[in-house]
Write a structure and sequence with these properties.
Blueprint (H helix, E strand, L loop, with lengths): L8 H12 L7 H9 L20 E2 L5 E2 L2 H11 L6 E5 L5 H8 L3 E6 L2 H13 L4 E5 L9 E2 L1
Parallel strand pairs: 3-4, 4-5
Antiparallel strand pairs: 1-2, 5-6
Helix pairs in contact: 1-2
C-alpha cells in the first residue's frame, strides 16, 4: 500500500517517535520495521483504535499482543544479522514475527494454541511476510504441525 494511502502510517510514526526512541531503541532496522509493519492488522478489529497504545492488548484465547516497546526492545537486544534465522516462541497474533521478518530475518514462529497460530499464519501470509508458523509447545521444542 502506498504510504500516502495508509491511514495508520502517522500513528506508527508517532509510536516510534514517542514510545521507542525516547526509551533508547536505536537500531535503525528495528525502528524501520516498527514503522513499516501494520500493527493494526495484528490486533482484533474492535481494538484497532488502540493498536498503537503504549500497552499490551487482549487477543483471542486469553492471550495478549505485547506493547510496542517490548517488541522493539526484544528485537534490538537479539542483535541478529540480516539473513539470520530466529525462533519466535509464542506467536500470538504474529506481530513480533512480522517485525523480525521485516528486519530481514528468516523466522520460524511456534504457538501452542492452534486457533492463534492459524489466525497469525493467515495474517502474515496476507501481508506478504514469509514466516513459518508452527503449532507446538515452544518450551519443549515440539513441532507438531505447520499451519
Amino acid at each position: 500500500m502506498d504510504g500516502s494511502m495508509d491511514p495508520y502510517r502517522p500513528a506508527r510514526e508517532r509510536m516510534v517517535a514517542e514510545q521507542l526512541v525516547p526509551r533508547g531503541v536505536r537500531d535503525p532496522r528495528v525502528l524501520d520495521a516498527m514503522r513499516a509493519v501494520p500493527r493494526e492488522r495484528f490486533v482484533p478489529e474492535r481494538r484497532r483504535g488502540a493498536a498503537f497504545d503504549d500497552r499490551a492488548l487482549p487477543l483471542d484465547e486469553g492471550q495478549t499482543i505485547s506493547q510496542p516497546y517490548m517488541v522493539a526492545r526484544t528485537c534490538e537486544l537479539a542483535a541478529v544479522r540480516v539473513g539470520g534465522r530466529v525462533l519466535d516462541v509464542g506467536t500470538g497474533s504474529g506481530y513480533q514475527a512480522a517485525v523480525l521478518a521485516a528486519m530481514g530475518l528468516e523466522v520460524v514462529s511456534i504457538e501452542r494454541l492452534e486457533p492463534l497460530a492459524r489466525a497469525a499464519g493467515r495474517t502474515l501470509a496476507a501481508l506478504g511476510y514469509d514466516v513459518e508458523v508452527v503449532v507446538g509447545d515452544g518450551s519443549r521444542g515440539d513441532r507438531k504441525s505447520v499451519v
